[in-house]
Amino acid sequence: MVALINVSNRLPVTIANTIKPSSGGLVSALEGYRKTHDFMWVGWSGGPVDSPRRQRELAEELKSRFGYHPLFISQQDIEAYYTGFSNSSLWPLLHYLPSYSRFDHNWFEAYKKVNFVFAENIAELAEKDALVWVHDYHLMLLPRLLHELRPDLRIGYFLHTPFPSYEIFRCHPNRQELLEGLLGADLIGFHTSGYLRHFRSTVLRLLGRESRINTIAGKGHDVTIGVYPISIPTDKFLQKMTSAAYSRHLEEYRRAYAGKKVVIGVERLDYTKGVPRRLEAIEAFLKRTGRKDVVFIFINVPSRESVPAYQALRREIEHKVSRINGNFASIGNIPVHFIHQSVNFSRLCALYTLADVAMVTPLVDGMNLVAKEYLICKPDGDGVLILSEFAGAAQELPQASIVNPYDTAQMARALENALNRTPEERQKRLAPMRRRILRYNAQRWAGDFIADLAGVDKSVEKGAGA
Ligand code: G6P
């Protein structure tokens, strides 16, 4: 039995008066594995917990109930490491938006400090030769820090965002340290071959390191790079769709939206998701067609509200939604239903099943799981997915109605076409995409990555100081 330590910025729990486990895709992807293996998850507790006594109590409860090891980060460090460096500096740059990216030297100091705290904790917890799987852009320095402390560990790193082209990544003042940090890993995974290619060329151009097929020669050890497109826990969705709650909600929504076509959009309220441009496309569609039988349901889950760019985006969306509704609503008919809250899982599945069309039009997105969730909730194959060509998911789902999210006129036309398609056309295009998702689900994604990490040959280690 090999120990696996999974590491992400946040633990999948919400800590308030009680501890509430959250059910993200990563949790489900690893569920099978944790039942059969020695497993631990290391991550930030998700909010400031100041009292050392409370920290001890929480740590004990998280360990005994879930096998989680929480790290407690001070409010000051959260602001600099999470709000600052991770979400105001790296996130926009990785999503091709350098004009949103800010830099502050103190943020990087906090980022280094927190990455080091992760490294120290894992180095202490990991048994010999354990596998460590690090996730996402908050922890780019961790692979190297950990490799230096514990060269016996097999360290995997998966980037959940895009990796941008060299021309974009080079804008970051800490580009070299970040790359060197990542190259401490034994295996680095990306969603698409495009991101992998960008990474390889950035490593060559910034560090002068060549790669052979999918191996980058390091100073001390080789690093394997690979493509692992993340997916969704299909069984969780299929099971939910057999529940009484799901059927009840679906019935309720069918009554509420009788005689209407329903178009859905679901995402965190994030400027990468392209919501303002999508609203412009909807405005153009309503203007051109004058249709009164279409309802747009936008579920925008609140996110990163301490970051100023997210606050400005919320104002922009609210303004656009109220303009559309002001211009096109009539008594009893409101075109855009903007829901700035999360929706529970059975309601979400029911809404996906109900929706005639899903508009998934991010300006750029590492993968985008909403596209896959919509498809799985369409067992009868009767729906249309409008998908941005800049979402990683577009690589896997070519039968979708692929659009350029910057071209609002094209999106408006795609919407019109989607609503006019025959049931046969809808089914013909949706079925192969749904089959693909059923075949390659979240469990397979995690299984493939872990198997490749376990297979890393540590005997080629060229000595310390890699
Ligand atoms: C993206 C990131 C994840 C992150 C999630 C929620 O999907 O790739 O790493 O967990 O957003 O963001 P938050 O800032 O709320 O953790």
TrEMBL record:
**Source organism superkingdom:** Bacteria
Q: Which GO terms describe its biological process?
A: trehalose biosynthetic process
GO CC, alphabetical: cytosol
Which GO molecular function, any one, fits this protein according to its record? alpha,alpha-trehalose-phosphate synthase (UDP-forming) activity
Question: According to its UniProt record, which protein family does this protein belong to?
Answer: In the C-terminal section; belongs to the trehalose phosphatase family. Belongs to the glycosyltransferase 20 family.
| Name this protein carries in UniProt | Bifunctional alpha,alpha-trehalose-phosphate synthase (UDP-forming)/trehalose-phosphatase
Lineage in the entry? Bacteria, Pseudomonadati, Thermodesulfobacteriota, Desulfobacteria, Desulfobacterales
